[in-house]
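Chapter summary example: a protein plus S-adenosylmethionine.
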Amino acid sequence: MSKLTDINYVKGVLSRHGFTFSKALGQNFLVNPSVCPKMAALCGAGTHTGVIEIGPGAGVLTHELALLADKVVAVELDKRLLPVLSETLAEHDNVKVRCADAMKLDFHQLIREEFPDEEVVICANLPYYITSPLLMRLLEERLPVKAITVMVQKEAADRICAAPGTRASGAISAAVHYYCEPEQLFKVSAGSFLPAPKVDSAVIRLNILKEPPIQAADERLFFKVVKAAFLQRRKTLSNSLSAGLSIPKATITACLSAAGISDKARAEEMTMSQFAAITAEIGNWSALLSKPEVMNNE
Ligand code: SAM
């Protein structure tokens, strides 16, 4: 069992380095001994596989990843944790810590520099305040990685993994299902962390697809449509799309009808293929109008 799950040891190391937890940086460190070995094993870390970890904290997950993978590059924003990590990960010569903001870092470059010949997976206990934007960034950039395994709040896990067309789905579900096949691996109770957050978490794995499951003629427009559709999820799809895309309601109703969709439908009822069909109709209308600026309402 890793000493990094011994609360007294972790508290001792952190206090020796004068470290105090930052709520703003989502710093809740794992102290449940069963979680990190399981996460490391399920993320695909192994021989001939490199791992990128985001937010190593005191290094509890990094340690388990380093036991399995050829090499681990851990990206930590909080420079106060660098001396802590030097101490806690001293036994591993296959770990590199980079002090950087994961929201800004060039991950393509990192992979070229650090993992030129290896398969790569991403594994992280994510800071909750950047869960959705960071996941979207990692997916949209089409990084050459096999899978992304992350711990997120349970509610976020449910939304991310919900199949489009089901009640729990949201804009992120459709976006995620465009790039990967998500699966929930296991639940983690709030008491597994120091300090304990208010809510439970879950570990999910996003298995990256080689091809999207649907053909969107205009990918950018597809994501605009999905985003607009869920902007006002209590309203009908036609109202949300009309408001979100600044397109007259009558045009949206005509596009929905051409795609075989009722104007009473709601965003959460739409499957990936239906979103693609709506995108195609709105794209046709926009091309006919030859006024691309109609769509420029970001
Ligand atoms: N992996 C550790 C664990 O499981 O105990 C810590 C996880 S803690 C939930 C999130 C970590 O992400 C913290 O170490 C925090 O400093 C770091 N972090 C927060 N924002 C970040 C960012 N934008 N880029 C990189 N790391 C970040």
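Key point: The chain has two domains: 3-208, 219-296.
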